[in-house]
Amino acid sequence: MTFLLWSGAVGSWLFIVTFLLDGWTRPGYRPVRDPVSALALGSRGWLQGANFILCGLAITAGAVALAGAVDSVLLALVVAVFGLALVASGVFPMDAMRGYPPGTPDETPTEYSRRHTWHDRAGMVVFGAIPVAAIIATSVLPEIGWKWYSGLTAAAAGAGFLVFGQAWEDDHPRAGLVQRATIVVGWTWLGLLFAHAAR
Question: Is the pLDDT of residue 199 over 90?
């Protein structure tokens, strides 16, 4: 079970490292504006697609062991849903738009493909699950430090989700930056939760 917990931790952190490095080195990609999901498009898109799927599977596997480690089936279930939604985000990539990949019109389509619709639905689950998991953690983890850290994470990740949603709708030039900050906050907490449970 310890191996599964560490798999969840590594999956959480590897997701961050992969999209940060790939985003900053991808030709034509603008990490401050473009969402992480756009990295699954273009000639190097397979890398982010694999990042979604493999890290999602690792987190889901970790969730299996989390139930016993923190004595909360509910927390483990929410984390498993999060992991599976990450996998779905990789299986159903978003549509090309807003200038990426290079050569794509710099505008938002009036109609979306079915796969993009499923990607959006999976994304809502992903970003909604982290604050919910963190709120649950405040009541099931006995350590006062973890209660505070989880509560702050829930507030920050929830606010980040809402701000990013509005920034995306407005095509704000820093929408990608807001999303990245939200992901780093939430996924870092999740990885540390797995590591804490493993110890």
Answer: no
Q: Residue 195: enclosing H or E segment and its boundaries?
A: helix 175-198
Mean pLDDT in the chain? 97
Distances (CA, A) of 58 to 8, 29, 50, 159: 5, 27, 12, 26
Q: Whole-angstrom Cα distance, residue 73 to residue 111?
A: 40
DSSP states along 98-116? TTBSTTS-SS--SS--HHH
Residue 42 is classified by DSSP as: S
- Rounded to an integer, what distance in angstroms lies between the CA atom of residue 72 and that of residue 38? 35
User: What is the torsional sign of CA 62, 64, 68, 70?
Assistant: positive
> CB 84: neighbour CB atoms within 10 A?
19
H helix and E strand count, the chain: 6, 0
Query: Hey, is 34 helix, strand or coil?
Result: coil
Q: What pTM was computed for the model?
A: 0.95
Angle among Cα 126, 127, 132 to the nearest 5 degrees reads: 95
Does 3.30.70 match the CATH number of domain 2-198? no
Residue 194 CB neighbours (<10 A): 29
Model confidence pLDDT, tens digit, residues 80-93? 999 999 999 999 99
